[in-house]
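Narrative of accomplishments. A recurring question from our advisory board has been how the design workflow behaves on a single, concrete structure rather than in aggregate. To address it, we present the structure tokens for one chain from the evaluation set, followed by the sequence designed for it. No filtering or post-editing was applied between the two.
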């Protein structure tokens, strides 16, 4: 573990980091059950946001895991049974997408293979590549308890997931129904609104006249999707809009289809958008579907699951939706009903995985009723059982839960937890719910029951992570946990769902603190993306400058706002690691028998000043780490070490060491301040501080990692 090359050289992380990490892991101290703490010691649990098995390290992982590791290392040194719980997520859509892509290169598609053979291929892929990100997390210095690692498709975890489905079904919270869902034609599955990405699209707003059914001008609607008008079943206006009061309740003619449809009044309509009149297509828009339900409108589907126009679209049948758009507009021009078109920019919904445009379509799916569950999650935060910080994210959380729709939990893919639902082959409306296949059909008594092919949304299983990620014995010891540290983009996707799941299944909130950190953007403020060529591989910095420098850089810049990445912070981190190393060499070279376990008795003004400054710095560091203000903590530790210790006290100590009267006391003070400084810096820069600790003439513990703060 010691840097064995030229002792006068600068600190070289390449010579120590891998060996130090191996020694840490070998010690077993990442496992809280092995820590040398009192039997009465309290647990402190940090839950790792599960990386996808398809994942490789990116800057967001570096930031997220560096913050978590600071928190868990601090708590470990404070004498807690500190558990940093790691795992990986099976990432249904993402993993299936990757494996299908690999198979296509070999000229194979999953339908030719069949479900069983395809899933076998996915498991093979997972065994080969699924642990890559965990090895990369080790490179950062993540001190997770790898002995407890869980995968969301492990046998025990799977049982918990299926038990949760059965529990919700027994409670009457799961139902099957036809609703308009967000559908990805490429992935062939439904998605929740939280799994969509939005990209700005320059399009047009087309103004189309729907003539009065008995003659007359009728009404003009404005739309960005003229191809869906073939399935319109009404035109809606706001009841307070004076322009259309005389038209409400009247009939207009749907162009091209020549079908009579009503004009209805609904509060969901924004009078300021377009003409203030909205074409209502209940089959192809979620808001329109809800308007349709309120006004008992029929639902006419014109776009299928492949994104193509259906027979009911008449002469446009078989066209892709975008082709149909152009053809419908040409037809409207011929009919003299296209009144106006104007440039319009809007956010287009696309699949978060493949980037394909989303088509809202009606689909028979399985839903989880959210009203009661959402209320539990709202109350947990309002009653301060869970604290979300920074405070502005609490509002985001509460707003989403207050306006939540029932959750579409079924997905039409093969990789994942297949629903524990069994249908009677002779009556498809009848089904039973159980983990095991029923030996005999309880309905017709003769058929061999068939399992529904759908799998559960990946977020359904990851919502159970705080307890399903633990063994039944560990749940007694380590549930509920303490901290959940994550990015804002999964506050609703994951955090809210874990909170109500914990309350539902364990009768307790899963954690007390939720800390939301910023996003790492490019220096220009753009989103980092490998596909866009704006991504940065953190391993580049780790390999060149060391993990401590990379950790220093992200935490230094993590002030709570989004980070406009500046790699100059990595160089600053590298210089600081070297400063710590050289300061330690100076202190140890002047040690000459002064034991680090001795408590210093300051004699000089300089001694007293540095000891007072050390105590004040430590006190503020404790307060700031516990409130997740890590950037502020690191900056204060940096100032203390570089300026107060190195620039001021070490320079002063050179004179004091030369004076026989003050030399002994100075040695003790130097040793004490160095040890206390590397303790405080250890959670942030674990490798260089551990390397120094291992060189100390006298050590209190085997590792700095388990030293007493």
């Amino acid at each position: 573990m010691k840097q064995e090359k030229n002792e006068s050289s600068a600190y070289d992380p390449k010579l120590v980091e891998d060996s130090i990490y191996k020694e840490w892991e070998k010690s077993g101290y990442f496992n809280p059950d092995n820590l040398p703490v009192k039997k009465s010691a309290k647990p402190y649990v940090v839950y790792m946001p599960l990386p996808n098995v398809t994942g490789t390290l990116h800057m967001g992982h570096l930031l997220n895991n560096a913050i978590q590791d600071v928190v868990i290392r601090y708590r470990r040194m404070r004498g807690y049974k500190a558990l940093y719980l790691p795992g990986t997520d099976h990432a249904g859509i993402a993993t299936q997408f990757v494996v299908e892509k690999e198979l296509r290169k070999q000229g194979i598609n999953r339908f030719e293979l069949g479900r069983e053979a395809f899933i076998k291929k996915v498991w093979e892929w997972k065994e080969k590549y699924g642990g890559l990100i965990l090895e990369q997390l080790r490179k950062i210095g993540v001190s997770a308890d790898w002995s407890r690692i869980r995968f969301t498709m492990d046998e025990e975890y799977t049982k918990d997931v299926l038990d949760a489905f059965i529990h919700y079904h027994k409670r009457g919270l799961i139902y099957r129904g036809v609703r308009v869902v967000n559908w990805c034609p490429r992935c062939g599955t439904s998605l929740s609104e939280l799994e969509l990405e939005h990209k700005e699209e320059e399009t047009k707003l087309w103004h189309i006249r729907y003539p009065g059914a008995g003659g007359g001008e009728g009404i003009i609607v404005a739309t960005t999707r003229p191809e869906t008008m073939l399935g319109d079943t009404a035109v809606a206006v706001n009841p307070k809009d004076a322009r259309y009061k005389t038209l409400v309740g009247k009939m207009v003619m749907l162009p091209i289809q020549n079908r009579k449809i009503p004009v209805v009044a609904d509060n969901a309509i924004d009078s300021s958008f377009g003409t203030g009149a909205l074409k209502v297509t209940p089959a192809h828009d979620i808001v329109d579907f809800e308007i349709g339900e309120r006004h008992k409108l029929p639902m006419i589907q014109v776009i299928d699951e492949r994104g193509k126009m259906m027979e009911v679209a008449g002469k446009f049948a078989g066209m892709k939706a975008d082709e149909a758009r152009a053809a419908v507009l040409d037809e409207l021009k011929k009919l003299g009903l296209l009144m106006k078109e104007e440039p319009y920019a809007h956010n287009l919904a696309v699949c978060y995985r493949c980037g394909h445009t989303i088509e809202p379509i009606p689909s028979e799916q399985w839903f989880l009723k959210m009203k009661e569950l959402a209320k539990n999650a709202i109350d947990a935060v309002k009653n301060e059982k869970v604290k979300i910080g920074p405070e502005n994210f609490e509002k985001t959380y509460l707003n989403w839960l207050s306006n939540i729709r029932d959750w579409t939990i079924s997905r039409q893919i093969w990789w994942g937890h297949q629903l524990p639902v069994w249908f009677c082959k002779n009556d498809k409306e009848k089904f039973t719910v159980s983990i095991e296949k029923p030996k005999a059909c309880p309905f017709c008594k003769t058929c061999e029951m068939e399992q529904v092919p759908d799998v559960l949304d990946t977020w359904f299983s990851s919502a159970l992570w705080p307890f399903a990620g633990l063994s039944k014995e560990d749940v007694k010891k380590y549930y509920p946990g303490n901290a959940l540290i994550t990015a804002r983009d999964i506050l609703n996707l994951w955090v809210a769902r874990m909170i109500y799941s914990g309350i539902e299944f364990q009768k307790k909130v899963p954690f007390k603190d939720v800390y939301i950190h910023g996003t790492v953007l490019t220096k220009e403020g753009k989103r980092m993306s490998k596909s866009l060529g704006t991504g940065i591989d953190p391993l580049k910095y780790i390999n060149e400058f060391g993990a401590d420098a990379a950790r220093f850089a992200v935490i230094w810049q993590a002030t709570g706002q989004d980070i406009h990445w500046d790699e100059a912070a990595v160089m600053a981190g590298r210089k600081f690691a070297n400063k710590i190393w050289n300061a330690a060499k100076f202190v140890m070279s002047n040690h000459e028998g002064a034991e680090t376990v001795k408590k210093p008795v300051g004699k000089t003004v300089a001694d007293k000043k540095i000891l007072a400054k050390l105590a004040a710095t430590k006190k503020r560091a404790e307060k700031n780490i516990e409130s997740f203000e890590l950037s502020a903590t690191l900056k204060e530790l940096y100032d203390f070490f570089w300026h107060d210790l190195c620039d001021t006290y070490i320079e002063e100590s050179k004179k004091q060491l030369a004076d026989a009267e003050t030399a002994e006391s100075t040695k003790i003070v130097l040793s004490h301040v160095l040890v206390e400084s590397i303790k405080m810096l250890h959670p942030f820069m674990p490798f260089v501080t551990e390397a120094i600790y291992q060189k100390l003439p006298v050590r209190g513990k085997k590792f700095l990692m388990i030293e007493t703060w």
